[in-house]
Amino acid sequence: MEEQRKIFLVTSCKGGVGKSTVAVNLAVAIAICGRRVLVADCDTTNRTVDLLLGYEDAGMFDLRDVSGGRVAPSEAILRDPRAENLFYCSLPHTGMQPSAEKIAAALTWCADTVNAEYLIIDTSGGFDFPRALYEYMAYAAIIVSTHTMASLRAAERTGAELARAGVREIRLIINCFDIKTAIYDEGRAILDIIDNTHVPLLGVVLYDEALRTAQEKGMPAACVEESTSPEAFYNIARRIFGENVPLFEGMEIRHRRRLVSPADDEDAEQT
Q1: CA distances (Å), 231 to each of 26, 156, 159, 197, in order?
Q2: CB atoms within 10 A of CB 12
Q3: Predicted confidence (pLDDT) per residue in 97-124, tens digit
Q4: Backbone phi, then psi, for 123, in 5-degree steps?
């Protein structure tokens, strides 16, 4: 099963860009699309995936227990009642962590147990852990960045480090993309962001106040009627499946060309 499984590491060397938000909502979108997916919280410094899914205190066991042989994978995995194809497991948030090799083995065992077609791994900021984990697992990397210059610089550094580590597929998700900033502030259009990071684009998630509020209640985007985010994550999921999906498919957005490149929009207005 592991040869067919698609494994994605969600990462950035900078904190606060929304890695966990992207990991959770992408996993939910993949599950709703009918694929079996395991989302694993491997953030060794600030575990939050359980909170974003509303699983706080729901699980008794974790990947450390699995790697140590104390429990079977089935005892460390939670199945989401809102999406039958969505499963969750995590590292403990305290105490000594297993080695990357043992984490990789435990993740593979858990994914095999639920026949997961996709494995989404949320990681902490920094390079060391993602690079060490890559040595034991074959996967693609998804770098998460906002449109701030500090975040873009971090995304560029992350991409360079992952490339040096031999990661064969690296993609970018722009999170919390502010339309007003993109239109009125120079250097914030999507093509500018890609040029700054040197990483191919997988998708764009617009800033969504409704999602930010809902996450405090453990509700992913797909569960929030007023949220503008679900379509963005469905589009990203479909691209992962290999479909050719336009960047803002199904999203009601004005000035689309200007969001991609202000220069293109100005050229269009002159012709």
Answers
A1: 11, 26, 26, 24
A2: 30
A3: 899 999 999 999 999 999 999 999 999 8
A4: -125, 165
